[in-house]
Design goal:
Blueprint: E1 49-54, H1 67-81, E2 86-89, H2 102-105, E3 108-111, E4 117-123, H3 126-129, H4 135-138, H5 140-148, E5 152-158, E6 165-166, E7 171-175, H6 176-179, H7 182-185, H8 190-198, E8 202-206, E9 223-227, E10 230-234, H9 243-255, E11 265-269, E12 276-279, E13 288-291, E14 300-302, E15 305-310, H10 315-327, E16 330-335, E17 350-354
């Protein structure tokens, strides 16, 4: 999610007052078997959330020459989100990180019909080994398991939260570009991993992602469930660098069926005007001008509000209106023009915990 990734630890601190352990297992519990066998499933994002985990931007290599501007956008978003859901920020709670993309290295939470909450601790390898070893990020689920009493399954498979999206009713969206990439789970069947971990039965495969995305095509930049029977997906006009790929994705969604064999209601999200950034030279290369992966699909749904990344262009209002129709919820625009310099925005920077 950045041109370069460094290491920075968070500040010390104790768990937030009133933080509650989820589940009945001991804080150190590593669960046996599979989530599916135990009756767990990954809930949809619009279901009730207990909290959202965040990491404030702190890595100057990720936001070169604009870290303070990215922090200001993040601070405004946190303040808005705090009005609808509890926010737990890792540095404030003594959890160190290399970077801020907790969607991809944080736990993937699942729930049981009896109300228990558990999680998955998948491997994180810097988006297919593109960056240096990221031990602090990879250890975040373990810290949450040990300190907040959230029991988890531990995996040696690489799975980033931004590569999947679920409708809470048996379906998951993902891309072949990412999950079938040899740099993620070579020699493993990703469909079996998803079924066992998320409690789903239907995998909807899209071809790939957008320009500027260094994650190998994460789904949260291109297509998202907005209801159990509806999907919002990005479409681009002729001549846009992503037109062909996004049209391939759209055709795959038109052919897709849910776990009951029904087609989905599709909502077309507009693309922002291309945004470019002049990256300075760094230890990873000579830098240069590149297109950023600005996408209105990188929204976060939290307790009745859709937080929509906007970029100061003509598509902002249109995207918010599409998402209000598609979700039936209130859309709140959040400026992310500097956040996206890190090659991600709101969804990438958050990890929701149901409850």
């Amino acid at each position: 999610m950045s041109v370069a990734k460094g290491v920075q630890a968070g500040a010390g601190g104790a768990p937030a007052a009133g933080a509650k352990a989820s589940g009945t297992a001991a804080p150190s519990a590593i669960l046996p078997g599979t989530a599916r066998e135990s009756g767990f499933r990954m809930p949809a994002e619009w279901e009730r959330l207990a909290c959202v985990w965040l990491v404030r931007p702190h890595n100057a290599e990720t936001w070169p020459l604009c870290l303070e501007k990215a922090q200001a956008e993040w601070d405004a978003w946190r303040a808005a989100m705090s009005r609808v859901v509890e926010v737990r920020e890792c540095a404030e709670l003594g959890i160190p990180t290399n970077d801020s993309w907790i969607r991809d290295f944080g736990p993937i939470f699942v729930t049981h019909p009896d109300g228990r909450v558990a999680g998955h601790d998948f491997r994180f390898n810097g988006w297919g080994g593109k960056y240096e070893v990221r031990d602090l990020d990879d250890a975040v689920p373990q810290s949450i398991r040990e300190r907040w009493g959230v029991p988890m399954w531990s995996h040696d498979f690489v799975l980033e939260g931004g590569s999947i999206d679920v409708n809470g009713a048996g379906c998951v969206l993902t891309t072949r570009q990412c999950l079938q990439n040899a740099n993620r789970g070579a020699g493993r069947d990703p469909e079996r991993v998803l079924r066992d971990a998320l409690g789903i039965d239907t995998v909807i495969w899209l071809p790939g992602g957008i320009t500027g995305d260094d994650t190998d095509g994460h789904i949260d930049d291109i297509a998202r469930f907005t209801r159990r029977d509806a999907i919002a997906a990005v479409r681009a006009p002729q001549g846009h660098p992503d037109h062909d790929m996004l049209e391939s994705n759209w055709r795959a969604l038109e052919a897709a069926r849910d776990s009951r064999g029904n087609a989905f209601e599709l909502h077309a999200l507009p693309v922002p005007e291309p945004i470019h950034y002049d990256f300075p030279p760094d230890r990873f290369g000579p830098g240069g001008r590149m297109m950023l992966p600005a996408s209105h699909a990188n929204f976060l749904i939290a307790n009745g509000t859709v937080f929509v990344p906007v970029f100061g262009g003509a598509s902002d209002d249109a995207a918010c209106k599409v998402l209000e129709r598609a979700t039936g919820l209130r859309a709140e625009p959040i400026m992310a023009r500097w956040l996206v310099v890190g090659l991600g925005s709101l969804h990438c920077l958050s990890c929701q915990q149901p409850g």
